[in-house]
Design a protein that fits this description.
Helix content is 42%, strand content 13%. It has helices at residues 2-12, 18-28, 34-46, 73-85, 121-128, 141-147, 174-180, 196-206, 211-220, 224-234; strands at residues 16-17, 50-54, 57-60, 91-95, 111-116, 135-137, 152-157. It has a four-stranded mixed beta sheet with strand order 4-5-7-6, with helices on one face. Helix 7 runs parallel beside helix 9. The longest helix has 13 residues, at 34-46. The radius of gyration is 22 Å and the shape is elongated. It starts with a helix and ends in a 7-residue tail after the last helix.
Length: 241
Amino acid sequence: MAGSKKKTYEDESQVFTTAEFIESLQKINPDYGERKAYRTLENLQKRGRITKVSRGHYTFKITKQVYTYKPDRFLKSIIRKIEKQVPECDFQIWQLSQFNEFLSRELSYNAVFVEVQHGYEECVSDLLRSESQLVLRSPSAASFHRYRTDNVIVVKRLYSDCPGPQEGTHLCALEKLIVDLFSTKLTGSLIERNRYEEILEDAFSRCAINEKALFRYARRRSLEKEIRRFIDEETLIHLMI
């Protein structure tokens, strides 16, 4: 099944192999030798005309956008409150609805995750809690789904060595969000597993993913093998590394 999916991707996305590249040149000019073809391939890569997608596979250069997310009023209010009341606390923030950008059918609820420097979990939880706002501090998956309300705030510890936030913000990087989907803890239970394929394929096709940062963090979370296996067997994505 995985093999047939990869073939479909190659047929539809103009991905070509080294052998196919040489063959196409020799159809134009039968005297085009392999050595010259390899030099042509190398020169086209240097000039940015084509890009390598995996070993022996290439595609025409496609410009991808750096992932950015504009926080809504609710997220902005949380960020301002933490910055004002606990300025020394390092934190990152994201919300579940961000994944709707990569899904054809939106998620049925939203939740906000505030990941804070170790030792600040209780302080930030107390700061954000009010009569009208439910805040859960480091809940288990079972507790979260038992007490969850729309726009619930979850305060949890920020993992060390995770990708830094989007430049100039406290917003989590897309690489971090992708890895956290595969967690065996809370974040791995937020979205049905059968929707991961759509999320990853759309994210990788439209956004410039820093694979080094993604897999560095995945190793920190002991998730690298699982993520690579999922991408290889369940998606049409061709990794660079």
